[in-house]
Here is the input.
Amino acid sequence: MSTPRNLYPDTVQFVTCCCTHGSYRLVPTKTVRRIVRYAFAVVSSRYRKKYGMEFYEFLFLSTHFHIVLYDRFGGRTSDFLKDLNSLIARALNAVRGDSGSFFAREPGIQTVLGDAKVIKHCVYTLANAVKAGIVHKAAHWKGFNSLRLEYGKEYVVEKPRIGLWATKKAGHRRRRASRRSGRAAFAGRSKLPAKATLMLDRPRICPELSDAQLRAKIREALTREEARIHAKRKGKPVLGMKAALKIHWSTTPVGGKPLFSRRPTFSTQTKAQRKKMRRLRREFLGDYPQALRRWNAGERDVVFPAGTVRMKLRHNALTEPIPFDLLLAG
Here is the structure.
């Protein structure tokens, strides 16, 4: 059983999703960019409308992606990632004639507390390609990202007519990859909209700043972060976009990924917040297994600890009150 998550409503979350085995399945070719952009627009607009989710920043690298988002109800982030990852995986597997797992099983989800921390994670997300040594500046990265988007502005994204969404069945069935995957028979059956809306939401921070001022503040912080990374590299060359695009999507890093690396579940601005979140996590990990055992034994009135996600959404299990005093305290 995977480690249970404790997620709370009305919180900002920093998400990291990696491709299986650290492979380069999201290498930003034109086809990948079109599919990822459309998939993100479709799923994000659906969750914004249905659950009030907001999306503050995002960036897709060749091996993983980051998203900074706001979860109004708590626990819907996992569902959002499931739908987004499924749509991207099915579309790209169809184009490549591949099958099987695409993304790693457990994404990283951190609860972010404090305005300064939200800005820090937004900047980290945008600067990720620079930090990875691929490009000198975030603007040089061609993968799908939110750097050039403005708060509240709607961008229309058309469905790419490729792979599962191809309209010409005959041509689709002639493709060797389509025949090998067995997906050619499903060409032209997609019920997804022909167009989707992509929008970047303004983070619920720094109320004294206008939308334009906050966007400028984040971009200025990004410029400083780029300069800091450049100075740290001490003249060491970057990989460059041309070389990054030449990497085959099935390539995996030499030596693989570390198996037992740290997986943080929260990111706080103050030491007091960090202590409180650590205590919440420790209590949750102690109480959840006991409540689950009682539930499996037939006790349907058992109360799960605050922050329980799956049991509450799937089985309407009872949970303790959300400790907003701890989440909002400085």
